[in-house]
Amino acid sequence: MTTEDALIKRLSVTPEQLIGYAYGGLLAVLILAIIQPSFVQSLVSSLGGILATLVALGVGVGIYVLYFKVIGEFALYLIQHAVHRVFDWVRKTPPEKHTSCVAYLGYMGVGFGYRRAAYETIKASCYEIETCRRMQVSHGELHVLYLTAVETGIAAGYLWIAGRDYTPWLLTAGIAYIAALIADTRQHFLEAAMLRAQPEAKIRKFLTDGGFLSVQ
Question: Which of 27, 70, 84, 105 could form an SS bridge with 100, CB 3.0 to 4.6 Å?
């Protein structure tokens, strides 16, 4: 086990979460430093460099949770999922070959409100450790794009309300979101193919053991 793996295990976070926490906080500080430099200077001066860094990481955790559990769950990921459904509908893809992992889990019998949780569980622990780790890192990279879109979009809204030029921030948010949607769709195409390649009995057992499927 590498030092990085040992640290992640000790902190009880995944590589995906670690990337999201760090990037969310650092980007927020960078945006504030650009649009409200006096506030950041005052904060660093009052807290000191080390404590200010810890505060930025704490803010990053809050931002990531809000983004992942609320904005992503009820908006961003639904749109990404809809892209797959449209693609499958146009190609007349049968249910057992869905290109969306969430839709495929629905085909396997996972209830509507539990499919994303089942998908997250599969992503975290169904495959070999190294495969799970690569998937987590890939999703962490996707969160970088989504968080950029969300945070720069919020910055654009703030500047618009304040009567300042918000165009560059809105443009950045739009580009980051389109890039995130494309990259996320491609990632889920790959993951759905990986999931379909597994023996169905193995996946069903994993889901049953996890409480996502009822014992037949």
Answer: 84
